[in-house]
Amino acid sequence: MGREKRISRGDFLKAMGAAGVAGSTLSILACQPNTNPQQSGGGGGGGPEEKKLNLYNWTGYVAKSTIPSFEKKTGIKVTQDYYTSNEELLAKLQAGGTGYDVIVPSDYMVEVMIKSDILLPLDKSKIPNFKNIGENFKGLPYDPDNEYSVPYQWGTTGILYNKKEIGELGESWDPMWDPEFEGKIGMLNDVRETMGAALYRLGYSVNTTDPDQLDEAEAALKEQKPLVRGYFDSYSGNRPLVLNGDLLLGHNFSGDAYDALSSNPDLDYVVPKPGATRWTDNMTIPKGAEHPDNAHKFINHILNAKVGAALDSYLYFNTPNEAALPMLPDALTKLPYYTLAPEVEDRLQIIQDLGEVTRDYERRFTEVKSA
Amino acid sequence: MGEEKGRGWTFGLVGLLTPVTLWLGLFFLVPLLFILAYSFGTSGVYGGITLGFNPGNYLKVFDPLYLEIIVRTFIIALINTFLCLVLGYPLAYFIALKGGSWKNALILLVMIPFWTSLLLRAYAWVIILSGNGIANRVLQFLGITDEPITLIFTPQAVLMGMVYSYLPFMILPLYAALEKFDVRLKEAAQDLGASRWHTFWRVTFPLSMPGVIAGSILVFIPSAGEFVIPNLLGGSRTVMTGNLIQQQFLQARDWAFGSALSVMLAGLLVAAIIFYVRKVGAEKLEGV
């Protein structure tokens, strides 16, 4: 799973990200603990913390100004480490190597981490800017009371396509199964999203555990496979492949699609009916964080309206920060499906953790890719 | 005196061998034992592992889906090894026997790709082979094709990428073996009436056998564990065992099954190599 390297800028960074995947396999095998894992203090308060913060984030997932503005305001020095998938983040924390104060897991991974009891509850009194979060982004099903997490960025998953070549697409997943586009379709190399596309098209829930529905989805993906060029990452795969014409249709995260639209006006992005994913990345504090006070300060800083707007303008994703919305440039808010009509919002689903069924999804996706 | 000298030697050797023993023990043997222990453990739903004796992970390997992937992996690795041998041998032969004063420069050229990360080179191939990449433009310019043809994200592209990446591992040991070859043996065979073909198969090739064996093993082992190239050049449409193992660790959170797969793969590789060296190697080597 995992929206790998969703946002990193530039091909070089991307290649480094993939190197990270290869490297991380090794580091997991070696159970290498990272920084010193003393479980000191926890959330215990006590005396003033040293002016440091360890942020563990997706590669390239901050605006240029985000961290400098925090350091200037608070005098707290931020050290950032990077991961490229939710699973890599989880594996690192489970291997005992933490020392991180703020991490940015996606929706279903927040749920996994809460169930694994590795997150620290947030003290909302230290996050006054929490009021800036839109009602629509509070109390999402993976953390109903925002006890552990506050949203960082969100977006949708849909289809990036070449409008000039194939004309305007309706709001449907069908083109991804259309023999006319054989060899010109790229799906995501992501179990939940690609199984999800098949489930959405069939009108089922993206979180179904019904074996019959999963059988149908698996069969649909096997039927689709001869038409598919491959299963790629969003940022480093489908986005450039649609841009350079190798693909006509790419299964993409919204921000990556917008990134492509901004450099090629022939392209368009659609969030299909009857269903599509709405995902959210969240800031949380892992247990064992050495600077929980600073972590709260950082989270509060991100939720500042201006900081949120700057983050969004740079990353092309959506902000959950309602106070930041009026500050966003028109070029951003006018992008297709950036500002969602209510009927589009209604069709969006949130991917949730499925416990043991996760492995059933995994096996089915392997079966599809191996067919 | 003699005794003391001997002891000095022993101490010296122990001193020299200690760092490498510690290094290998700590960073190779211990992780390997971890994998072995994990392969009998039980994976928690959210990752993590409970140690114990659970042979279920190994039984899961016999799922037809996974068996098919393992068999496919071995076939791809075998084809890759064969192609590297067929392509690499003439080049190694040429450099070793006809290279003259250019030998070192030519071998350097073979090694130059190692100076760049495999990942970046694989990305370079993606760009070269893409629809409007250099390869397609040249083909269209030459009038061989009108429309861009599909060169990338196919099983053929995976194989091509693997041959490209592993060819130097074949050429270098072949070169080392052929470089030591005494040309007078060839002349003697020809003086005794053997044809050039005959001379090659009965004299030159058998004498280069250590290079063939070393090269084949050096190519076969990493190609059986390959997972980057099927992803980058194959568009993840071709699943190899390496991909499967990676998925278990990073996606399915099933470390126990991933470890069992790793142990199985390592075991099969060791068995294949013993078989190969015994069958092919020993016969040929003894025949010399």
Could you explain how this protein is built, in words?
The complex is a heterodimer of chains A (371) and B (288). Chain A is α/β, with parallel strands linked by helices and 371 residues long. In chain A, the strands form 2 sheets. In chain A, strands 4, 5, 6, 7, 8, 9, 10 and 11 form an 8-stranded mixed β-sheet that branches. In chain A, strands 2-1-3 form a 3-stranded parallel β-sheet. Chain B is globular, with a radius of gyration of 24 Å. In chain B, strands 1-2 form a two-stranded antiparallel sheet. In chain B, 31% of the residues are buried. In chain B, 76% of the residues lie in helices and 1% in strands. The two termini of chain B are 44 Å apart. The longest helix of chain B is centred in the first third of the chain and has 38 residues. Chain B has 13 helices and 2 strands; from the N terminus they run αββαααααααααααα. At the A-B interface, helix 1, helix 3, strand 7 and helix 14 of A face helix 1, helix 3, helix 5, helix 11 and helix 12 of B.
Give the overall average pLDDT of chain A: 86
Main beta sheet of chain B, described?
Answer: 2 strands, antiparallel
In percent terms, what proportion of residues of chain A is strand? 15-25%
* CATH architecture descriptor name of chain B: Orthogonal Bundle
- How many independent structural domains of chain B? 1
So what's the CATH class of chain B? Mainly Alpha
Largest interface: A-B, 48 and 39 residues
Shape of chain B: globular
Distance between the termini of chain B: 44 Å
Q: Averaging pLDDT over every residue of chain B, what do you get? A: 88
Full CATH superfamily name of the largest domain in chain A: Periplasmic binding protein-like II
Strand content of chain B: under 5%
Give the uncertain stretches of chain A in residue-range form: 1-45
Rg of chain A over CA atoms, rounded to whole Å, is 20 Å
